[in-house]
Each structure stands twice: as structure tokens, then as C-alpha cells.
Q: What sequence folds into this?
């Protein structure tokens, strides 16, 4: 699949988050908290085996129910090290593994996970549709892909601003102009996907929670 011009190259994102690791929690913990809580609650309702993609410093990990079995993956060793420290510091025994992996190519078994969570990640990956394809493969029928992110504003002036600043902040691993319609288009083309209506979150409703359900086998279109 061709890379769409403004998608972020994987190497650039990995490098950017290597730099973010030491300041990330201080800058993002409170800002992202409503979205993190909503994503964890959605996963907790499903239960079972959970994959968190782009686990970063592990800010969501304490929010998951202790009866889940959580695997976290990330491109950035520096971010993962922070997540590992958090797991040890807070005794998060529901965290089964933290591994370096790229969501586009990771080869975990088919239909392994009940839920796959993308907190502030999907809009940053270099091939979002490939990342979603691989996630759908790893998801059990009846399972959910849970996404929280900022998406391009519906307000045309704000959307214009987001498009203008996007090239300026790509180098620090941010992508403010990603349209939610791109995920809807991907989902519409799949026989086994249903996308739920996005739920706005946070101050100014700047983030959204998006749930994609993988239909059970007998219910495919
Ligand atoms: C904005 S941070 C979000 C961290 C965490 N999920 C949170 O919400 O606090 C994005 C994370 O996604 C990771 N990431 C970006 N592209 C990725 C990919 N292709 N595969 C796995 N992780 C990726 C980055 O290294 C970074 O740690």
C-alpha cells in the first residue's frame, strides 16, 4: 500500500519518542487522563487477553482490571523502559509482557486477543490501514479494537489550522490532522467489522473514543 504523503515514517516516530520518554508523563499524564480512563474502561468491559499497541510509558497499565492479561508493545525502547519501571514500582501483575514491536509487522498469533487498545497511536503510525489489518488478524471474533486519539476537527477553521501546523510538528511525532473518516473507510471495506459512533472526550471534546467490533463468524456481511 502506498504511504499517503503526510503519514509519519516509522523511523522518525521511534526517534521522536526516544526523546519524549523522560518528559512524557509530566506533559501528558493529566492531559490524556480522560481518554486513558475511557479506553481502559472499554477494555475492562470486554475482559480476557488485551494487547496495548504503543504502550509508551505505560500510563494506562494501572487502569486495567487486575483480572485482565495485558501485553504492551512499542517501537521505542526508551518509552518501554519507563513502562517496565512502572510495572515494577506499582506491582502490576496483570501485565504479562512488554515487548519492542512494530504494529505493522508484529506476528502474534491469529485471534489471540479479546481487545486491542490504541491510545494516541493509530494516527501516528506510518500505515494506519496495515496496522488495523494486522490488529484485526490478531483479534478474536467478537473482540474489539479500541482507539482513543485526537482526530481532525469537524470545524473547518480548526481543521485548516491543524493541516497548517501538521508538517511543523511531524518531527516530534504528532499528527493533528488525521481524519476519523479514514478509519470508517477501512472498516466499511471489511466483511467482519462494525465501527461504533465516536464518543467525544475531555475538555473541549478534543479526543474521541472509537470502538471497532470484529463480528462473530456467523454474522459477517
Ligand atoms: C503519543 S505516544 C502514546 C503512548 C501511550 N499509549 C499513551 O497514551 O500515553 C505514542 C506511542 O506509540 C508508539 N508507536 C508509534 N508507532 C508505533 C508502531 N508502529 N508500533 C508500535 N508502537 C508505535 C511510540 O513509540 C509512542 O510510545
A:
Amino acid at each position: 500500500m502506498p504511504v499517503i504523503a503526510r503519514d509519519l515514517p516509522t523511523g522518525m516516530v521511534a526517534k521522536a519518542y526516544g526523546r519524549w520518554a523522560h518528559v512524557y508523563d509530566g506533559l501528558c499524564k493529566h492531559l490524556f487522563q480522560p481518554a486513558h480512563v475511557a479506553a481502559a474502561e472499554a477494555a475492562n468491559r470486554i475482559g480476557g487477553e488485551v494487547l496495548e499497541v504503543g504502550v509508551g510509558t505505560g500510563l494506562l497499565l494501572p487502569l486495567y482490571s487486575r483480572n485482565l492479561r495485558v501485553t504492551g508493545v512499542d517501537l521505542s525502547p526508551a518509552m518501554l523502559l519507563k513502562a517496565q519501571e512502572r510495572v515494577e514500582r506499582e506491582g502490576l501483575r496483570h501485565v504479562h509482557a512488554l515487548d519492542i514491536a512494530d504494529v505493522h509487522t508484529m506476528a502474534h498469533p491469529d485471534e489471540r486477543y479479546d481487545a486491542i487498545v490504541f491510545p494516541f497511536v493509530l494516527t501516528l503510525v506510518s500505515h494506519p490501514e496495515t496496522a488495523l489489518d494486522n490488529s484485526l488478524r490478531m483479534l478474536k471474533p467478537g473482540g474489539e479494537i479500541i482507539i482513543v486519539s485526537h482526530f481532525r476537527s469537524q470545524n473547518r477553521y480548526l481543521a485548516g489550522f491543524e493541516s497548517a501546523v501538521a508538517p511543523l510538528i511531524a518531527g516530534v511525532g504528532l499528527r493533528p490532522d488525521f481524519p476519523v473518516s479514514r478509519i470508517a473507510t477501512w472498516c466499511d471495506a471489511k466483511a467482519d467489522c462494525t465501527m461504533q459512533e465516536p464518543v467525544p472526550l475531555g475538555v473541549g471534546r478534543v479526543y474521541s473514543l472509537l470502538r471497532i467490533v470484529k463480528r462473530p463468524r456467523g454474522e459477517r456481511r
